[in-house]
Amino acid sequence: MRGVAEARPPLTAGGEAEQWERHARWWQEHFTNGADPEYEEQIVPLVVDRMGVLGGSPRPSRVLDLGSGEGQLARALSRLAGIEVTAMDRSRTQLGAAAARGEEPRLLVGDAVAIPAASGAFGGVLACLVLEHVADLGGCLGEVARVLRPGGVFVAVLNHPLVVTPGSGWVDDHMVDPPEQYWQLGPYLNETSTLETVSEGVRITFHHRPLSRYVNAAASLGLLVDHIDEPAPPPGFVAQSPGFSALETLPRMMILRFRRS
Ligand SMILES: C[S@@+](CC[C@H](N)C(=O)[O-])C[C@H]1O[C@@H](n2cnc3c(N)ncnc32)[C@H](O)[C@@H]1O
Q1: Pocket of ligand 1, candidates 31, 75, 89, 206: which has the most ligand atoms within 8 Å of its Cβ, to mutate?
Q2: How far is it, in rounded angstroms, from Cα 69 to Cα 87?
Q3: Cα angle at 135 between 196 and 203, to 5 degrees?
Q4: 8-21 as b/e, with b when 16 or more CB fall inside 10 Å?
């Protein structure tokens, strides 16, 4: 989901909203409705499991899918008995597709740093591949903590912050004998905003932060990690790059589950 990184000064929030409006259909075409093996085989089932049942805790009855896109995860969560889901996104094009694709969930236009919902309105919040697109992390986490009731859960799916840093990528070196495949790591500790070319003609801003920034910013707001997943890439994804066996040794995703104290 990430491509060539290009160092740029941070864009304005308005510019970033416009990027997602412009590229919503690209996202829908390539990553939703069964088009992407990572979502089908890994992200959707893991999110449903982590939000629904982990640790024997009761399933939240009201869940907010923050930055829901066209709503694929909100629809999957809606299918769990007893969960009422609200899909919220800043992009009207994404929510238009969500409306066309299902009667559930409820749809809400809103910004992750000013969620239009009452304090304590939700028992669960999900943000799947969204936080790395939000410039104001503290503002967003503050809103998540506000709309979560005490004891509620926040599930955040991230491009793995340590592995998928800007400037990282596979090197397939045939100049050495024997040839080597290895993952080149970018400057992990530098907090950077980069405009990345994720596909031809599709440029999206990513805000990179070390893992400690996410965990410590959340903890300062009473959101404490109670589970982490670092799954190996699923078979359908690995099959897209035959011969690249090293692919299976690094997690592309990290799923953090926080509980509101
Ligand atoms: C990579 S897509 C992920 C969509 C969905 N969560 C999924 O996993 O299918 C990121 C989404 O976040 C939304 N987004 C980015 N920044 C946002 C913000 N500040 N407030 C609300 N939505 C935002 C974009 O419009 C886009 O739909």
Answers
A1: 89
A2: 8
A3: 20
A4: eeeeeeeebeebbe
d(CA 108, CA 85): 11
What distance in Å separates the CA atoms of residue 120 and residue 8, rounded to the nearest whole number?
Answer: 38
Give the separation between CA 38 and CA 72, rounded to whole angstroms.
13
Indicate whether residue 64 lines ligand 1 (CB < 6 A).
no
Integer CA distances (angstroms), 95 to 6, 33, 67, 245, in order:
29, 15, 10, 38
CA distances from 258 to 42, 120, 140, 236 (A): 20, 15, 14, 29
Q: Could you tell me the distance, in angstroms and rounded to a whole number, from the CA of residue 14 to the centre of ligand 1?
A: 14
The closest residue, in CA terms, to atom 23 on ligand 1 is: 67
Q: Which of 16, 20, 147 to mutate to test the pocket of ligand 1 (most atoms within 8 A of CB)?
A: 20
CATH number of the domain located at residue range(s) 13-260 in this protein: 3.40.50.150
pTM above 0.85, yes or no: yes
**Between the CA of residue 73 and those of 38, 120, 184, 250, what are the distances in Å?**
13, 22, 32, 24
pLDDT in tens, 188-222: 999 999 999 999 999 999 999 999 999 999 999 99
- Cβ–ligand 1 distance for 152 under 6 Å, the answer no
